[in-house]
Amino acid sequence: MSRLRRRNNDASIQLTPMIDVMTVLLAVFMVTTPMMTTGIDLELPRAGASAMTGSDHAIQISVDERGNYFLSDTKLSRDEVVKRALAMRGENPQLTIMISGDAHADYGAVMSMMGKLKDVGFQKVGLRTQPE
């Protein structure tokens, strides 16, 4: 007689190794994400002990020493920065804007950005400084 072979096919998936890998990946991303903040290398003006350093939830606008405007690390014209800020305000009406002006930047370029933002209705506009 022929002998029948029966195989015990265990088709279940072991979730423990997958959960371990996902936990490690989550920990790696949580540790490395704050270190990945990009921006323009600016020498911020020094102010007193109560200097405004900015908020993580604010839009960061930078003005370099040549008067160029940057939204995060993207170089844009002043009007384009304002347009994008208005688009972001549509999602969050309580949006705060922090302007980081280089210590050697033209005062007029920084104030021009601040004035334009105030003209289009932004109420929470601040200047970012470095504590002494």
What are the defining features of this structure?
132 residues; alpha/beta; Nucleotidyltransferase, domain 5; five-stranded mixed β-sheet; two-stranded parallel sheet; 3 helices; 34% helix
Give the topology, please:
Blueprint: H1 15-32, E1 46-47, E2 59-63, E3 69-71, E4 74-76, H2 78-91, E5 97-101, H3 107-119, E6 125-128, E7 130-131
Parallel strand pairs: 1-7, 2-5, 5-6
Antiparallel strand pairs: 2-3, 3-4
The whole-angstrom Rg is 25 Å
Can you write the helix and strand succession as a string?
HEEEEHEHEE
* Spans of at least 5 consecutive residues with low confidence: none
What's the number of helices? 3
Number of strands: 7
CATH topology of one domain: Nucleotidyltransferase, domain 5
Structural class estimated from helices and strands: alpha/beta
Tell me the strand percentage band: 15-25%
Question: Main beta sheet, described?
Answer: 5 strands, mixed
Mean pLDDT across all residues, rounded? 79
- End-to-end Cα distance: 93 Å
Q: Which CATH C-level class of one domain is it?
A: Alpha Beta
| CATH architecture tag of one domain | 2-Layer Sandwich
Helix content: 25-40%
Structure in words:
This protein has 3 helices and 7 strands. It is an alpha/beta fold and 132 residues long. The chain has a domain at 46-131: Nucleotidyltransferase, domain 5 (2-Layer Sandwich). The chain is elongated, with a radius of gyration of 25 Å. The N and C termini lie far apart (93 Å).
